[in-house]
Design brief:
Length: 170
């Protein structure tokens, strides 16, 4: 099986991870911190907004079951792409939105979906589109958080999880 990955920052990583886990073709997810400037940052360090990192979800997927284009369309359905450094009640640079890629060939698809989304808004989108420069996994406590704590905090409405669960099922 061929697998690919994409790193998506959509605000608090607890909800973003849970959202992507629902989508058929997603093989695994991992929460962590992307594209900052401190080696091996802790959650507490990232929380200070001084490390440059964004809370990010590594999404590993099977491209024969789900396309990058579809995953990005789902990503945009789960975020406010015009909100700078804020998603829901979560505020700070660690909650910025971003698409970070490891395969340069993915940039064409990213730019296509971005342009389609931009056409829906009068104001410019503030979603970063950059190569992944660093990713550090968050502590086990944060992995699969909403599976472990079903009533835990989440900035995403529960209806989005149901939408994701049914989105590309045959």
């Amino acid at each position: 099986m061929t697998i690919k990955d994409i790193y998506l920052a959509g605000g608090c990583f607890w909800g973003t991870e849970h959202f992507f886990k629902q989508i058929a073709g997603v093989v695994s997810t991992e929460v962590g911190f992307a594209n900052g400037h401190t080696a091996n940052p802790t959650y507490e360090q990232v929380y200070t907004d001084t490390t440059g990192y964004a809370e990010t979800v590594k999404v590993v997927y099977n491209p024969s079951q789900v396309t990058l284009e579809f995953l990005l369309q789902m990503f945009f359905a789960a975020i406010d792409p015009t909100s700078l450094n804020k998603q829901g009640h979560d505020d700070g640079t660690r909650y910025r939105t971003g698409i970070y890629y490891t395969d340069a060939a993915d940039r064409t698809v990213i730019d296509k979906v971005f342009a389609e989304e931009q056409s829906k808004y009068a104001e410019p989108l503030v979603v970063e589109r950059e190569p992944l420069t660093a990713f550090y996994s968050a502590d086990e406590y944060h992995q699969d958080y909403l599976d472990k704590h079903p009533d835990g905090y989440c900035h995403l409405p529960k209806a989005l999880f149901e939408m994701a669960r049914n989105a590309n099922r045959k």
